[in-house]
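Supplementary Text 2. Reproducibility record for the structural model of the 165-residue chain.

All settings were left at their defaults, and a single model was retained for analysis rather than an ensemble. We include the record here because the model underlies the residue-level annotations in Supplementary Table 4.
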Amino acid sequence: MLNEKLQSLLCAQLNLELYSAYTYLAMAAYMDERSLDGFSHWMKLQAEEELVHAQKVYTYLSDVGAKVTFEAIAKPLGEFSSVLEAFQKALEHEKLLAERLNEISVSASEARDNTTVSFLDWFLTEQVEEVASTTTICEKLKLIGNDGNGLLMFNNELRTRQRTP
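Retained model, structure tokens:
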């Protein structure tokens, strides 16, 4: 059974994962409005991943008999000055997710809740990958700069991204 602090932190994480999906859909819409279907595709897959993360948190809470509480999901940013800015915001958000998951893991360790620590290990590893891939995209966008042809080529590259299991 989870202690109240961990239950509260995990319910907040559930909300944050849902907000993440909402954020990525807003970013996808921004890309679609600019006919950047590859960038939009990448964002939509990110949104799907965040929903999977939310479902994992929900299932864990349910499985351990915790009360699952829901809060309102905040309105995401939907306007950006550039594709790069949108991805920089995505990177900031992925870093926030990593920070929050680390905080929950520390709390679980302090509570000697090894089951929750083990549950969170997958998320922590996933966040390393998410931050790395989003950082790479930001760096490539910086190299592209204002080159429209480069942006379209990168758009085509991101269109090929596959859903991860």
